Structures are given as structure tokens and as C-alpha cells.
Amino acid sequence: MSFWNDPLKVAAGWLEGILTGWGMNAIAAHVLTVFLGVLILIVLLMVLDIFLVWIERKVVARFQDRLGPNRVGPFGLIQPFADIIKLIIKEDTTPANADKALYNLAPILSMMSVLILWAIVPLAPVMLGTDLNVGALFLIAAGAIGTLSIIMAGWGSNNKFALLGGFRQVAVMISFEVPMLTMLLIPTIFAGSMNMNAIINAQNVWYVWLSPLGALIFLIAAIAELGRSPFDLAEGESELVSGFNIEYSGMKFGMFYAGELLHAFTYGGFLAILFFGGYRFFGLEQVSPFLAILILILKAMFGYWVIMWVKYTMMRIRIDQMLSFNWKFLTPLSFALLLVTALMNALLSSAPTWLYVSGMILANILTGWIALEIARSATRQERERTEGIKQPAEVRH
Amino acid sequence: MTAQQIIFLIAAIYTLASGVLTVTSRNLIHAAFWLISAFFGVAAIYALLNANFIAIVQIVVYVGAIAILFIFAVMLTRRDLRVSEHRLNKGWQIGAALAAALFVGMVSMLAQWSGFTKTADAFPTQFDAVGALGEALTSPNAYVLPFEVASALLLAALVGAVYVAFNPRADENSEAQK
Predict the structure, then answer these.
(1) Sign of the C-alpha dihedral, residues B8, B11, B14, B20?
(2) Which of A97, A130, A133, A149 to mutate to test the interface with B (most CBs of B within 10 A)?
(3) Residues from chain A contacting residue B128 (CB–CB below 8 Å)
(4) Domain count of chain B?
(5) For residue range A271-293, what is the model confidence (pLDDT) as tens digits?
(6) Do residues B76 and B134 both lie within one domain?
(7) Which among A58, A303, B25, B56 could bridge A68 via Cys, Cβ 3.0 to 4.6 Å?
(8) Are A259 and A114 within 8 A, CB to CB?
(9) Is the pTM value of this prediction over 0.80?
């Protein structure tokens, strides 16, 4: 076992050896080593987060036919550091009559709800954080902490716009948790486990081929959980100024902003893990753990790019449209898809791979098509009821 | 004392302190947040008992759904959320004495039990606790009937809630306005 094959274990063993050599208790040395490992992961994620700001601004500039940051450093690479210095030296304001404890706790919890997700991300076959057997549910539980932080920020700020933004965002988050949890069950059915590493190991065929509709619904629910456009009702600059984080200044606002970017990247990572094979890519992950991490990051970046692409090309939808889209369309569709997937999985369990995959794809397409037809006829009836039956348009020459 | 016992004591004291603060805070919103903190403490104790699934479900259901609904309900009420009257009534000394007596009685009874000082056995390796739970809940030889009865009860509660919230007359009015 060398450093290049299993870097985590070798490094941890080396460090524990040194610590016990200094006369430290074995258990204490182990706890300290694990703690240092977590600290290193968090530091790396925060450094990545700094560059995500740059990536986000560059990509949105491309989408909007601009250049983006290009003055500070080569390609504007130093720009995020300049932003951070600005955020740190800004005056830290607290609104009058704010609920100080909740007001100050909210940005910390917001960041925590993102960082805690990385505890279950398998970075490489030999580099797992916690090999939790209920990984899929852990994702939802961490989301609950995020919801809590937003309601804390909305309440603690003592500002009506902040409270309204917080309410809206929480309404979105708890509604879209339902389709998201349902879609997390689809990889669970295929893999027979909720463990993230087991889900990756079972993906000899990427699950996006088995359940393209499931991947799409997961992506939509993830965007809604993030509160990004077209679901950025909490921000609603035109009506709510900036939503739940309006009263925050300096690094406290920075925590929300950085948390959102890292959250988007993290959901890109979970999309990759659940539907695109995680760190697996034609056996390359067996060559070196570092290559596996690179593959996972590239896949996560792809998911992040899709989320940005949606954000900067779609406009915001109204809250009633969004809630009825979730409860009347997405939730029944995800339940139906779950039932169909479970049924097909049982029927085709002994079928050869090509039949299994094509059967699953056909079932997905059929479910999606039926759902769209039902939605189309329902909206047509609704339109006829409110606007009256339209005469067929005259033939134009 | 083992590390597990120390963690248990910390989690237990944390849960109890949060519980006390839940019932004694003057601000109703703070009480709701202390309740959430108590839920996290209980989840930590479940995790210590090797019940990962129950611990996560505790957070998903209680923190993610029920506590958020509590906070919504509290925030949507119009009354001033601060309570000004005294938070303990006259019988608190009797209550405290009864609770202490109950605690001492339970501990002295449990101390006579042979398993009192035993530590829990470790799980056998490769034991799939979540899989075992899932099979127990759906197997006819185990708990499929209570599981189905509970789900029917929840469905009935859901239908009932929709029926109570649904006001056909208001719907007709909005139709007429259109």
C-alpha cells in the first residue's frame, strides 16, 4: 500500500504514528487525525468556493455576451480575492431590534448545511468520508438545516422584506423536497442501497440511461432547493429587494452567497453521483484515486454548468405557478415514475442488460409523455373555462 | 468512562437543557428553536445507539417538517410573542420533587436488573441494519400489518386535513368573480 494508491489511509497512519510516538493516547490521536482530515476537506472546499465565484461570473458573462471580470490578475483570476477583502473590511451592521442570536446564527447554519453534505460524498473508491448506509436521507436532512437557516435569517433580521423572502423560500424548499426525496429513491431501487458508494459501484450502466426522467426531475428539484432562477422567488429583486439576506452585510452576506454557490456545485456533484456514475469513468478511477477525484469534480462542474445555464437563461416564475407546478405536476409525476420504475425493476430483474436498459428507457419516455398529455389537456380545459372556447383561427394566406 | 459514555452524557445534558429552555423562554420563537435543538440532541442519542436510520429520520421529520410548521404557525399568529407573566406556577416544587423521586426510583429499579452495567454488543460486520428494518416492515411474518395500518391512518389524516381546509363556497365565490 503506497501513498499513490490509498493516500488518505497512508497519511492518516503516518500522522497517528507520529502523534502516538509523542506519547499521545491512541484514541486521542485517532480523533485528532480525523478532525484534521475534516478540516483539510473544508479548507479545500472553501478555496474551491473562491474559484466558483470567478467561474460563475465568467460563465454568466459568456451567457450574456459580456467579458466578465478581466481587470484584476490574468483573466480576472484575482477578482474573487479582491471581493473577499472588500467583504471582510466592510462595516458589519446589525438592524435595530434584530433577534441577535438567530441573526448571527443563520449564516453559519447556511454554510454548515452545505459543508455537511460533503461528509457522505465518496471522492474516490478508497476515499470516503462517512460510509453512511442512509446517505440519500442524509441529503434531505442537511437540506432541513438549510431551510432552518433561511427562516432564522428572515425572522432575525426584523425586516418585512426579509421575512417575506424567507417565507417564500421555505415554501419552495419544503414543497420541492417531496419530488427530490422520491427521485432519490430511484437510484436506491436500482442499487438496492441508500449508501452513496454502493450506488456508484452498482452503476455499470449510468442511471441516467435507466431513468432520464428521474435525473431531470432531480435536477429541477435541486434548482428549486437552491433557490436559483427560475425559482429565485426569495430574492425577487423587483418586489423583495433581495429577500431573506437583505439586512446582512460584509462576510455574513458573503457566507450566504458562497454557501449558495457551493451548494449548486454540491448538487452538481450529487447529480453526478446518483445518475452519472460518480467517480467512475471507463475504469480510469482504478488507476489512481487522484484521477477519480478529478473525474468527480469534472462531472460535478458539468452539473454546476447546467444549473448556471438554466439560471441565466430562464426568467423567474410566480409563486402560485411554481407551487401548482410542484404539487399538481411534478409530485404526482415523480410518484408515478417511482411506481413504474419499481414495477419494471421487478419485472425485468432477470432480463439481459440490453433489454433491461431499453425497457427502463421506454417506461420513462412513456411516463413522461402520458404526464405531458394529461397536463396539456388539463391546461386546455382551464384556458377554455377562463377565456371561453376560442374560434379556430382564420386560415392565413 | 469510555468515550461513548462521555458523548452520551454531553448529548443527554444538551437535550435536557434545550428542553428546559424550550418551556422557559419568554419568546415563543426562541422556544421553537430550542425545541429544534432538543430534536438534534435526541438524534445524536439515536446515532450513538447505532440507529442511523432513526437518527436521520428524526431530523428529516421533526426538524425538516414539524418544527418548520411550528415556526410558521407561531410567526403567522398576530399576538405579541413575548410572555410577561411568571413562567413557573406555585406547584413547581412539588413537581420537581415528584420528578426527582421518579428518577431515583427508576434508577434503583434498573440497578437490580442484570443487564444494567452491560455494554452493547457490536454489530456483526456487513450487517445491513436499514435492509433488515425494511424487510421487517414489509414481511408478513413481522410488522407489515401495523405498518399498513399506520399508513392508512396517515392517509385518513391527510384526507381529513384537506377536507377541513377546503371551503367549496370560497371556491364558488372566486369562480363567480371571474
Answers:
(1) negative
(2) A133
(3) 133
(4) 2
(5) 999 999 888 888 777 778 888 88
(6) no
(7) A58
(8) yes
(9) yes
